[in-house]
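User: Teach me something about this protein's shape.
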Amino acid sequence: MTRWKCTIAYDGTYFAGYQIQPNKRTVQGELERVLATMHKGEAVRVTASGRTDAGVHAYGQVIHFDSPLSLSADGWKKAFNAMLPDDLTVREVEQVEASFHARYSVAAKEYRYKIRTAVERNVFSRHYAYHFPYPLDYEAMKQALSFVKGTHDFTSFCSAKTEMENRVRTIYEANLCLTDDGVEFQWIGNGFLYNMVRILVGTMLEIGQGKRSSDSIPAILAGKDRRLAGKTAPAHGLYLWKVTYDN
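Assistant: First, the predicted structure itself:
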């Protein structure tokens, strides 16, 4: 039995999220369908670095699985991409030690959130960037981002449905970059809670509009109450960009 690590990318528009759900199209479901075909009907479980919600995209999601088949890394990649749908692709495949775990071996994750600020709507980017055609104070948002970096309890910035008791996470980078048609947030941390990035983005946009002050972040963090933070930004602007491991 050999363990394989795959870096995958997908357009989340028409998926009901990463994780398998009854009677719904999911990323995990498509991957395991292909593996079952390759293993003559035998189920092969795939483990990911983490789940993504419906509408969320990925450029660098990572999975692992175990298989007795004698295929090279390039053979696996070609086999997957010959049978996967057009909105899901395997970018890289490598053999790893049995101790590697796509979720538990993670050292850091990078998420990006794309926002289009032009007044006119772009029908071709409507699934891939949040259209937000309102004036924004970029300097205020950059100042607010500086308060997010570091180790904090992010209870105020996660969904009330979050089941994890430990909500302390470390954010290594929180950046705002101007693009040709808007802005892009970059978040790098040792882990992220349910809806954490989208709530952070929603709060930053409120700061950019002057609805909150840039120095309000410490009080929101200290309050440990979801009601203190901003709205949850839509899923379609979010990308799981890169997963880094301890190796």
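Now, about its shape. The longest strand covers residues 57-67. DSSP finds five helices and ten strands in the chain. If you'd like, I can walk through any region in more detail.
User: That's plenty for now, thanks!
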